[in-house]
Amino acid sequence: MEGLAADRALLVRTSTAERVAGILRGRILEGYFPPGTRLVEDSIGAALGVSRNTLREAFRLLSHERLLVHELNRGVFVRTLTTADVEDLFRLRLIIEGGALRGIRRRPAGCDRVAAAVAEGAAALARDDTAGLVTANLRFHQALAALAGSRRVDELMDGLLAEVRLVFHAMADPRSFHVPYLARNREILAALEAGAGDEAAMLLDRYLNDARSELVAAHL
Fold it and tell me: What CATH class is the domain 2-78?
């Protein structure tokens, strides 16, 4: 729980269950808690310095987001997603991410954030950091959705991509899966830099459909 202890500084005295849920959601997105992990109240509560009631409320919030599941007499676990979950997640991503790109006619202000995520992925690949590569890819997609300029979309994507991170654990070789998509991230970035949002959306549609096919096959 050392990693969580470092997050304690993010909580102020008036910490709420929403803040705790945000930290745990972020850790799931980073791959810190893989599917099937049992979340032990005492350990996590001590690491974050929060009460049991606050932690339980955070667990409830994340269960509502389909990231956690409570098993009677066993405790709280990180969800293991199904093939149907994968299909549903990517169906929603096509709508949200594609919608954020379509209609862009000039280089968007948020393009720097997209470029930073692409550079982060390249740096992770160079140092052979597979976990970092996965996280950078998810940040790339967060940055794409952020081009919609909607706080609600941003919040929705946080939970959505945390679920996607759980899907990735099914891949036997996550590095080989993610490396080809780094080049495709660059193609989408280039289209956005040129102000060609419709082209970027077309590239993204193909990208997400290909990724969905690979991930569904891994879950069968």
Answer: mainly alpha
